[in-house]
From TrEMBL:
This is Cytochrome P450. Keywords: Heme, Iron, Metal-binding, Monooxygenase, Oxidoreductase. It comes from Streptomyces tubbatahanensis. Belongs to the cytochrome P450 family. SUPFAM superfamilies: Cytochrome P450. It comes from the Bacteria.
Amino acid sequence: MRSGTSGHTSYLVTGYAEARQALGDPRLSKDTAAFFADKGSRRRLHPAVARSMLASDPPRHTRLRKLVTKTFTTGAVDALRPFIAQVTAALLDQWPASGRVDVIADLAMPLPVTVICELLGVPEADRPQVQRWSADLFAAGHPERIDAASHEIAAYMTGLIAEKRDRPGDALLDHLILARDGAEQLSEEELVSLAVLLLVAGHETTTNFLGSALLALLQQPADLERLRRDPDLVPGALDEMLRHASPVSTATFRYTTEPLALGGVEIPAGAPVAVAIGSANRDPERFASPDRLDLGRNAGGHLAFGHGIHRCVGAPLARAEAELALRAVFARFPEIRLAVPPEQVAWRPTRLVHGPATLPVLVQTAT
C-alpha cells in the first residue's frame, strides 16, 4: 500500500510474505538519523533514543547487539525463571481471594518492569517513574511528550551510570559500563542508548502480549480450561497467541537505500516503508482463518518478534515471563473471567505497540 502527503510517498507492507522479505532485506535501512539528517525535522528526541541499536544498521548494529545477546539466550533466561516465578507469585499474592482485578495494573505491567529493572540494576524506588517515562515514549499523537520523555529517561540513565561507576554491582548495566570503560568499542552515548533501549523494550512488549493473550483466552473458555488442566501445553500455545495478539503492531522505521520490489510494487530509493506486523500475522494466505485463536495451529514463523538481524533480542525473556505468568494465574484463579464485555476493554492509544490499557477480571482462588 502506498500513501503520500505533501509530496512525500511512503509504503505500508501488510502481507506476510512481503513483511518477512522487508524485515530481512538489507536494502531497507533502519538508520533513522541518516534519513532525517537533511529533512529539517522539528522532532527533538534525545540522541540516545533517536540513535539506538534499533535505529542502526551493520556494522554498528552488529557491534552493539553482540554486547547484550548473551544475556538473553535461552540458557541465560532459564536461570532467571525462579526469579520470574517469585515476582509473579508476589504480585498474585496481592490479588483478592475473590473480586475484581485489573490484570494490566496488577500483573502484566509490574511483572516485566520488575524483571528488566532487576536485570539492569535499576533501584526499586525508581521503577514507577521509569514506567511512566516508558509509557510516554509510546504516546501516539503526542510528539512533545515523546521527545520530553526521551530526554528525561536518558538523563536518568546517565545519572544511574555515574552512580554505578562509584558503586559497581553485578547487574547487566554494570557489565555494559565495564565494556564501555574497557577495551570494547562503546561510546558513552551508546552506553546510555543501550541501557534505555533494554529498559523500555524489555517490558513494553511483554505487558501488551500478556494482556492481549489473556483477553483472547478469556473469550475461549474451553481453551483456557484445557491450558489450566494441562499447564505444560502453555509453552506450545505461546506462538499462536503471539501471532493472534502481536504486541508490536508496526515495526520500527525503515527506508529504502536503493530501488526494490515488494509484492510486485516497485519502491524507489529513499522511501519510508512501514511493516504492519499485526496485519502480516493475520494474512489468510499464510494462516487459515487468521482472526481465530487456534491453539492447535502451527504458528511457527510468526513475525511477532520480527525477523532477520533485528529480531527481538529479548524474545526468550518475553516468552518465559508470559509462560510463567499464565501458568500461575490459571493455577491460582481457575474461575477467572472477564468483568466487562470484551468490546468494553479499553486499548492503549500508543504507536508501534498494541495491547489493552486495562483488563478487568473477576477472580476466585482455587479451593
